[in-house]
C-alpha cells in the first residue's frame, strides 16, 4: 500500500516507519505543514518525495488547505495517510474522504488523555501505567478504532521528560507494526 506520512516536526516516527518498511506498505510521500520541518530531511535522505504545504497562507480556511493536501495525495495515488506528529486538526471534509485509511499515533493510552501534555497529565493523575496508541482518525480528536497500544509502568522517579522519552521508544516500535497490519487487512 502506498502511504503518505504527514508531519509537522522532527519526524522520529516517520524515521521508524521508513526503517521498518516491509512488503505491506511503502512510504511514497511525506508532507509537512511546517516549512523546514526536520522530518523533511529524513524523507529526502531516504529518496522520498518531501513537500511543504504551509497552512498559514490559507488563514482560517482549513478546508482550502485540505483540498490542496488532498489533490497532492490523490495525484500520487496514495492509499493510506499516516499522521506522525502532524499538529493540525483535520476537518470532517478530510476525515470523511479518508475514512478507514487515515491513522494517527498518540502518546497516551487512549481513551485516557486525548489532546496535549499527555505525560504531565499521566503523572498528575497518579497513574502507574502509560503508553501510546495507534488509532483510525475520526471526526472527534484522538478517538476512533484502536489499532494497537503499547504500555509501560510509570516509576516514582519519572518526570514528564523521562516518560516522553520512553513512550517515544514504544511509539517507534508500535507504529510500523500497526501500519503494516492495517495495510495487510485492506482490500
Ligand atoms: C509523538 O510523540 C507523537 O505521538 C505525537 O507527536 C510526537 C511526534 O514526534 N503525536 P516525531 O515528530 O515523530 O518525532
From TrEMBL:
Pathway(s): Purine metabolism; IMP biosynthesis via de novo pathway; N(2)-formyl-N(1)-(5-phospho-D-ribosyl)glycinamide from N(1)-(5-phospho-D-ribosyl)glycinamide (10-formyl THF route): step 1/1
Coiled-coil intervals: none
Catalytic activity, EC: 2.1.2.2
Active-site residues, Swiss-Prot/TrEMBL: 106 (proton donor)
Record-linked PROSITE patterns: GART
Binding, (6R)-10-formyltetrahydrofolate: 62, 104
Keyword vocabulary terms for this entry: Purine biosynthesis, Transferase
Domain Formyl transferase N-terminal: 1-178
Gene Ontology CC terms, in alphabetical order: cytosol
Site (Raises pKa of active site His): 142
Any one biological process term the GO annotation gives: 'de novo' IMP biosynthetic process
Residue numbers binding N(1)-(5-phospho-beta-D-ribosyl)glycinamide: 11-13
Class of enzymatic activity (EC top level): transferase
Catalytically driven reaction(s): N(1)-(5-phospho-beta-D-ribosyl)glycinamide + (6R)-10-formyltetrahydrofolate = N(2)-formyl-N(1)-(5-phospho-beta-D-ribosyl)glycinamide + (6S)-5,6,7,8-tetrahydrofolate + H(+)
CDD domains documented for this protein: FMT_core_GART
The keyword Transferase is assigned to this record: yes
GO molecular function: phosphoribosylglycinamide formyltransferase activity
Top-rank taxon, per record: Bacteria
Signal peptide, first to last residue: none
Biological role stated in the UniProt entry: Catalyzes the transfer of a formyl group from 10-formyltetrahydrofolate to 5-phospho-ribosyl-glycinamide (GAR), producing 5-phospho-ribosyl-N-formylglycinamide (FGAR) and tetrahydrofolate.
Family stated for the protein in its record: Belongs to the GART family.
Matching PANTHER family: PHOSPHORIBOSYLGLYCINAMIDE FORMYLTRANSFERASE
Identification of the protein by name: Phosphoribosylglycinamide formyltransferase
Naturally occurring in which organism (per UniProt): Terricaulis silvestris
